[in-house]
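Appendix C reproduces, verbatim, an entry submitted by the partner laboratory led by Prof. M.T., so that reviewers can inspect both the input and the predicted structure.
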Amino acid sequence: MLATNLRRARAERGLSLSELSRRSRIGKATLSQLESGTGNPTIETVFSLSRVLEVPISDLLDARPAGELTVVRAADMEVLSGEGVDLRPLQRIESGDAVIEVFDQRFRAGRRQESLGHVGTEHTLVQAGRLAVRVEGHEVELGPGDYVRFDASRPHTYTALDGDVHSVLLLQYRAEQRLHLTDPALGAGPCDAGRQPSADGVDSPPAQRSRRDR
């Protein structure tokens, strides 16, 4: 689904591959492979695309509607791996004007996972292990049962302390940030209504603009 969703999101933003490559800092050849369905994206790649295109992660990865009963088996979960973490997408929940993505999140011992920032609000609940979380110079340590919430557009870092860390990640978005995947138009669509161009040329929702990398 990433290939189709990425092409659609890029077209809705009116970005060429070269421009998307420049803004996301991802090689043009890599983006071309992703859009053709032959690439194997890392967490860093997917989060960078989410940040630049201003869409939830799940709108890039999936478009399956949730049924009345949804069971996700651990063995069947697709894994997105980064420098220090493995993410397994579980579910996307939509309620009112909120979109929430649920991930199984596992940090590898002694490894650090850095993010330049992306769309949404990030919630992490530690289930096992000790986790250091740093957000723009502010650092906290979390243990089992501890929870942290912050603006995900800010640069942030996770570090597993004293062994592996198992946690649950929730990414919360405003519904207006959601990509209209069912809209057949690849040009201006419902999600473009009322958008205003930001200083660097990326269209942003009228109510909220995410902070981008400098």
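The helical segments are 2-13, 17-24, 28-36, 43-53, 57-61. Additional entries are available on request from the coordinating office.
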